[in-house]
Amino acid sequence: MPPASSTLQRLIKIPSQVDSREGWIITVAALTALSVALGAPYVAIVALKAIAADFGGYRSTPSAATSLAMLGTGVGGLGMGWLAERVGVRWVVVFGAVMVAAGLALSSGGEAWQLYVGHGLLIGLLGNGSINAPLYVYITRWFEARRGAALALLSGGQYVAGATLPPLFERAVAAYGWRQTMLGYGVVVASVVVPLALMFLRPPPAAATPAPAAAGGTRAAPHKVLGLSPASAFALLAGASFLCCVPMAMPSSHLIALCSDLGLAPARGPALLTVLLVCAFLSRQFWGWMSDRVGGLTTLLAGTLAQATAIVGFIVTQDEIGLFAVAAAFGLGFSGLIPAYILTVRQLFPAREASWRIPMLLLTGMSGMAAGSWLAGRLYDSFGFYAPAFATGLAFNLVNASLIVTLLTFYRQTRHRVAFS
Q: Is residue 74 predicted with pLDDT exceeding 50?
């Protein structure tokens, strides 16, 4: 087998091609970098009760830090997506990795303002904001026919992080404390993500053809998207993204604390989160395959209904075996949503607009996740248990489903008009 350096040299010499083996190699490298970088907020999630104990017992404090990291990641993607188009994704990702490491170091200081600034500004806005959205835009330029599958693989980064890191963080926090765990993981982020970016993130191939203008492959008139103005169609899609991500964040951010409240062994919480995220990663590959065949909007509707069904289980389930089953079902259900939203943007709008539309859509999704994580903590502080939070998430999920049905209705009406025109 040739060494990695010679393989990399051959890739540099060969012109880049869409849907090539090279694109898949780069996607795996991007997945690894994204998994490591997005693992940073999981330290606060795993150590939620320990951090809360240092800040007066209020779980809303570490929950707010996690929410700020999510929100910052979304906001930062807007500017960093634009910057990556001009200076190259490689250097933007390198900068982001350094900022994530700095954010973890600052957050370990032990003051509330350090936790908020470290997570919101450094880990979120400047750190993962420079990695998450730029990599999504970048990978879409490497694929046409298999774009849904590639996005599904890349978007599994959060689930790889969530499935593998919480058990390690749980042991590290128990042995060394949450501050030392944050410091140590900052070193890991910088030492893994920076070399990957420098080695693999080369310029993508030039776009050969404009993106299709309808979610099922039917072209719409240039001035209309699904029979609506582009702004109206995008607003509906972004609103749906926000609404679906509010309930999506609740179990992921609070499952470990929920298990502790129910008296389960300390290792059960990270294990449940691992089950949820492993199921999410594996099923996401199915959702990616499905979206390449039936379109983004249809995949969105199926995914949001599956997520709504699973979140009901968190409201009514209290025992360990039931929670394992519900966690697996939730992972299987919600995992196809984010890549389906991104695929829908590429199917509805021109490729030249991807560098701002994809980060904007990710911002609304991250805003929803930030709201969901904080809201669950706030409702727990008010009621003393999590059922009201999950019920609120279900309500958001049902409104989201109604928006997706509305978009699908417009799509079918547009397709009907095109077929009979």
A: yes
